[in-house]
């Protein structure tokens, strides 16, 4: 199963890359200014595991949903992910130098271009979803836009980033978060978009209520597992392995479950969440093995 | 007609303010972090003429379109406008201190919050449009999202801002733009969103092809007129009158038609464009007088 999973992950990543390239090519007519488009390409192409698109594609596939719609929805969620990385890396935010093994966008270009390219990648996500090329069904297009907007907005990803800045004491004294507050922050900052990927796939696959609820539980457990795994990697891995800065959460006093509990208890909680994600898929047969493998991968990845 | 117009502009602005407040109130459930929500409110509430929402509402009204849908679409386009102002004002962009007569968002809060609040206002625009509360017709919701995304993105507003930064010599030597290039830049930077406002109203009013084309011509002429009027105000008005910095375009060598042609020829072109906008509405009767008045107002406003 594991070998199949890595092959499939790479295969979907390759398909997504093609879709991203195609969308950028279309963006030259009418013309997006070259510098802006180059910055968007730099941020979006040739990097990342494409885990969020993978979840859209494989969830839709489980339900025999339209694979073309899933790929375009996967591209849209990747645009949002990449825009958030570009803005989070800005000097005024986390001030990072390295992303996906390359200089961050504002170093490769400049701050103004990085702000604008991030803004435009977000816009492009919603343009992609609302375009009839994604689905001939306008109700599906509108639903995908709503799912992504809710996950990316103030009660989701962007709100989580704000809580993260507050937790590190950016605006007042550093805040000591308890486990509940850390979970809430992480459910917003990274969980919402990962869970949204599964929900988009479920929507494209026209899941019934029972299937939707099961997939939502899966997505939420996987999202929580992903962030704990990320925090463990931040402690245990080198910057070279991750292709981004490490050790910075501890250094800045950011609230993580690893920091609060130590590695042992955090790893036990991670295992529990993977188990929860796997069991949420009980109503599906072995055709859901790829999603079960994704839950294991989320916990066991080394980068 | 002019007195009616100003009353109507104020009346729509008041209705839009109510819709914005309601949308922000809903954003507290599930909770958007208080600091983020406060920054979004600061940027969006209590200021501006609300010209873009006015154009959505009055165009929809001309065609007897759903006024509730028009108000929510107007709120969405205002969110995009306000996000772009917040990001344009950032130190890395135009580095402005004053906006709508108040300190700019990054001064009232801080840069990180201003970036995040801008990001979230953009997301909220698409969430607002795709929400069933805007229209029970999902095809209309999807179409409104697509219109706004195209107008706001790399081939529209954000692309125009990039061209503007390039024109002021930010990335290389200052670029001398000819009239064609200035028109292109301005059609993207400010024209696309103003024109989009009219198109959204036409979509909500289910305009037929002939009506749509006429309104599109109106919107484009009005958008071009708006920018020339803005450039004239930048030269002729004080910062106190405008509630934002003035004289900066000339100081930075930005390409404007006023700079290229001088005030006399620019004012003649402005009058021509207002005339063009008014005549584009020939197929409508006096019920389009309010849009004709909007074209005159665009040219004659003092702030």
From TrEMBL, chains A, B:
Obligatory cofactor(s): Mg(2+)
Family annotation (InterPro entries): Isoprenoid_synthase_dom_sf, Polyprenyl_synt, Polyprenyl_synt_CS, Prenyl_diphosphate_synthase
Keyword Metal-binding attributed: yes
Pfam family, one: polyprenyl_synt
UniProt entry keywords in alphabetical sequence: Isoprene biosynthesis, Magnesium, Metal-binding, Transferase
The family this protein is said to belong to: Belongs to the FPP/GGPP synthase family.
Protein name: (2E,6E)-farnesyl diphosphate synthase
Organism (species): Labrys miyagiensis
